[in-house]
Amino acid sequence: MDIFEMLERSLGAFFVLLLLTRVLGKIQLNHSTSFNYATGITLGSITANIVIDKTIGIIQGFISLGIWTFAALLIGYLSLKSPRARLILNGEPLIVIKKGKIIEKAMRSAELNMDTLKMLLRCNNVFSVEDVDYAILETDGQLAVLKKSGQQTVTKKDLHIPTHQPLFLPAEIIVDGKIVEHNLKELNLDREWIQTQLKNSGVGSINDVFFAEIQSDGTLHVDKRDTHS
User: What is the pLDDT of residues 74-89, one digit of tens each?
Assistant: First the structure.
């Protein structure tokens, strides 16, 4: 295989895979189920074979990718439309701890041992089974944990502390001396507002700013350029 054929195969496979991942969408490729995980691995494997195996024709390889993508979309559609199909294809969450008691039958069904359960609990900042009210093993292998009421984190609501609705979702306004125009437009702000905020921060020019981000209260966090670099 010469360099030009390798280049043709690599670039072709790259752009076709990019297109197909866009077609499949975020849900299909976010590893939320074992099937989605297998889909991502298989697409990558087929693409790799197209690039390095010259016995596989480029067109045939792309057709294989298309067929697998169509099958994945079909499975996704069936899962969306049919609860029964969704149950068969994706499985269902398992309650492994209920009201503080470990459900041994569910543990055996999930082939989950205590060492793994303890590890999953620690990943949720829980170091004792005694602190758990409910624990549910999700279809992607993650463990959702509800602590007992006495172990739950105290919130402002519990302490009757007044809370305020944020004015803005924090977003980039300036990156490397350039205004992020689409964020500015989305937030209904203008350059005059930026100049006022920069002046309040003691910055004379946008070019002097490496990064600026609007905060939830409407103020602008400004990180000046490093003049020593």
Answer: 887 887 777 777 777 7
